[in-house]
Amino acid sequence: MKRFTCDELVELITAYLELALDSAERDGVRAHLACCEGCRRYVEQFRASIRALADPPPEKLPADVRDRLMSTFRERRHS
Description:
Order of helices and strands: HHHH
Number of helices: 4
Distance between the termini: 25 Å
Shape: elongated
Number of domains: 1
Keywords: Transcription, Transcription regulation
Domain Putative zinc-finger: 6-40
Low-confidence stretches: none
Pfam families: zf-HC2
Structural class: mainly alpha
Radius of gyration: 14 Å
Protein name: Zf-HC2 domain-containing protein
């Protein structure tokens, strides 16, 4: 199993949450999260952001706005 650093985990978080990692990478991310409180907090904040964007009451975000935001999260992972 690959051991990830905090910086590596940040780069993988979008793929992890979209279930786009292979099983070895997923296991590595889970192992890191099990022992790193800071990264666990980061993932929870990321999940909270996704939940907020996915279902804001009652003025739901337009699809183009949500798509741009998700694209920005993905691009950040590649920069």
